[in-house]
Description:
Blueprint: E1 51-53, H1 57-63, E2 85-90, E3 99-102, E4 108-111, H2 117-126, E5 134-136, H3 142-145, H4 148-155, E6 159-162, H5 170-181, E7 185-188, E8 193-196, E9 199-204, E10 220-225, E11 228-232, H6 238-247, E12 256-260, H7 272-278, E13 280-285, H8 297-305, E14 309-312, H9 313-316, E15 319-324, E16 329-333
Parallel strand pairs: 4-5, 5-6, 6-7, 11-12, 12-13, 13-14
Antiparallel strand pairs: 1-16, 2-3, 2-15, 3-4, 8-9, 9-10, 10-11, 15-16
Helix pairs in contact: 2-4, 4-5
This protein binds zinc ion.
Zinc ion (ZN) binds next to α3.
Domain Metallo-beta-lactamase: 95-263
Pfam family, one: Lactamase_B
Protein name: ComEC/Rec2 family competence protein
Amino acid sequence: xxxxxxxxxxxxxxxxxxxxxxxxxxxxxxxxxxxxxxxxxxxxxxxxxxxxxxxxxxxxxxxxxxxxxxxxxxxxxxxxxxxxxxxxxxxxxxxxxxxxxxxxxxxxxxxxxxxxxxxxxxxxxxxxxxxxxxxxxxxxxxxxxxxxxxxxxxxxxxxxxxxxxxxxxxxxxxxxxxxxxxxxxxxxxxxxxxxxxxxxxxxxxxxxxxxxxxxxxxxxxxxxxxxxxxxxxxxxxxxxxxxxxxxxxxxxxxxxxxxxxxxxxxxxxxxxxxxxxxxxxxxxxxxxxxxxxxxxxxxxxxxxxxxxxxxxxxxxxxxxxxxxxxxxxxxxxxx
Length: 335
Ligand SMILES: [Zn+2]
């Protein structure tokens, strides 16, 4: 392929002139034994033995377990409320983030892919993902994009959005090549609003002036389904979130029923002023064995102090939220 990516990295890899190009025929999952071992840990008990937290307002009452408000003010629904359910899965990919969103209409977004191609392949197989409408790479670090490569190869995304700063690794190059081969349209994060059926994804571009540090140029997304809200902001560090606060961006205003812990619970991620705006009800930490001390006590204490319910993929495996348009939801974990 010719001008595939500006080596210096600015700007998303060149837009394909053939932007219209239909997605490459979604590669069929090579009937490999990928199904085999889902992951090293828990064994096949996961989907079955899953312990289910019913967070839906009504159900929570009967379940009597933890009292979880199912969030979402019912009050005024704008126009007609969508029907069906949106499913958001924080995939257990070890240390890293990978969030799979499916709208009631079957439209799909993959936000980051974790660092393991193998684990991502297994998840795609498990959840039958053969097509991705929107792929977002929060930034180009390996623990976020390595797993995107097999996702592109299997389910060639229609659109790929990133921060416009190319990675410097072979993994990045592989990703770009795969996207080109799939005929995916590249877009640099701006203020796109992408409709996945009745799910609205509002892209939160990095604020200006962040230099070219990958973390501080993380692309965020606000996900809206009826009155349900979720916020994902990659590995955005304090500098970036402070700049977003300063910009007074409407997309970061809570409350959010669901929120992704910044930077795997690093100490330079979530902070009080930020959480005071975001007001998350549930936080999921995408974390696995690591040498960084993630998640840090600092982050965990912060969540505790703000009364945010904490989920961790290292302890609970894949964490799934099933949301209704009235803002209620159910949370399910693999273990
Ligand atoms: Zn990361």
